[in-house]
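Q: Given only this backbone (79 positions), what sequence would you predict?
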């Protein structure tokens, strides 16, 4: 899957990932390959990214929106 994390200032992350855990406004949730299309709001918390190399990266956000469509994930976040 391709993930992009974008803030108003810059693109924070762009790359291939195997999973993403997000702080949803209604509770944390994960996204894996072939996830159903979704648009959801995000609250303050940590976005946990697992890359295809199994390296894990964490990004702190203050809120935002995520869109998942055709194995493309776009996170528009306040950092």
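A: Predicted residues:
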């Amino acid at each position: 899957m391709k993930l992009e994390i974008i803030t108003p200032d810059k693109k924070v992350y762009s790359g291939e990932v195997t999973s993403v855990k997000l702080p949803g406004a209604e509770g944390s949730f994960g996204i894996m390959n072939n996830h159903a299309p979704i648009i959801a709001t995000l609250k303050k918390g940590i976005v946990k990214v697992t890359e295809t190399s199994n390296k894990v990266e964490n990004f702190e956000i203050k809120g935002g929106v995520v869109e998942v469509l055709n194995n493309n994930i776009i996170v528009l976040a306040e950092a």
